[in-house]
Amino acid sequence: MGKIMKSLMQTVVSHLKQIMGLVPAASNEGSTDVIISGFSTSLGSSEPNELDRRPVGILYADIVEYARLTEEDEEGTHLRQVESMEILKAHVVANNGRVAHLAGDAILAEFKDADSALHCAINAQLSARQWNANLALNRQVRFRIGVNFGDVISDHGDIFGKAVNLAARLESLACSGGICVSDAVRLKLEADSDFRFVAIGKQYVKNISEPVQAFWIEIDAQQIVDIDLTSAVKVSAMAS
User: Fold this and answer.
1) How far apart are the C-alpha atoms of 151 and 85, rounded to whole Å?
2) Distance between CA 178 and CA 214 in Å, rounded?
3) CA distance 150 to 111
4) pLDDT tens per residue across all 240 residues of the chain
5) Dihedral angle of Cα 167, 168, 174, 177, to the nearest 10 degrees
6) Quick check: 194 and 182 in contact, CB under 8 A?
7) Phi, psi dihedrals of residue 134, rounded to the nearest 5°
8) How far apart are CA 45 and CA 30, in angstroms?
9) Residue 164 three-state SS
């Protein structure tokens, strides 16, 4: 048994040295499998998969004053948060988007283009206005939304990269219940009469060295698109 274990360890060390370039690789093709405690482990080197990069419309939304709302009414805020997020997700789906990440009071979604992302943002904010109309001012759940367009890295269903970071920073520049977009979005959609861009100048934002040109979106109540929100959780009555 001791000889078998010694031979096994020598084989493992030899292959590790080959991987690290300390000794020439064995001439035989393919990788060698070593059995360790019942698991088959390949010691051959393999190239990592290439990252999936693609240009997309990006929406990042966050609930305004979520900490205050939770402090004042923890259970009620949670129920209202659940419903408002379900409504926002319904708008994402209605605009052929995909939710990439959820983190408590924030949501990140991707779309095939800037047009879909911005239409989603506008209709989500208009739906939020209608929904909040039935709540007291100090209990209303409002979103700030940032919209960007650019290349992202897709990995295990989530999206990453500079374009995602910028969308999150644009969200922080939006007013309560409002939308802030990048110059990339404006350049894509400025000819579309559905959107009215209000320049707020170049802005310095966290962790981005150069100032970014940002725009607020004027929201017209007539722009709202009726969609089926029956999948949204109905908890307002309990939360009010």
Assistant:
1) 26
2) 13
3) 11
4) 555 555 556 665 565 555 555 555 544 444 444 333 333 334 444 455 567 889 999 999 999 999 999 999 999 999 999 999 999 999 999 999 999 999 989 999 999 999 999 999 999 999 999 999 999 999 999 999 999 999 999 998 899 999 999 999 999 999 999 999 999 999 999 999 889 999 999 999 988 889 999 999 998 766 555 555 544 433 333 233
5) 100
6) no
7) -90, 5
8) 9
9) helix
| Residue 177: how many other CB atoms lie within 10 Å | 17
- The structure's pTM equals 0.73
Q: Residues 217, 221, 223, 224: what is their CA dihedral angle, to the nearest 10 degrees?
A: 110
* Alpha carbons 235 and 80: distance in angstroms, whole number: 7
Round to whole Å and give the CA distance between 43 and 29: 12
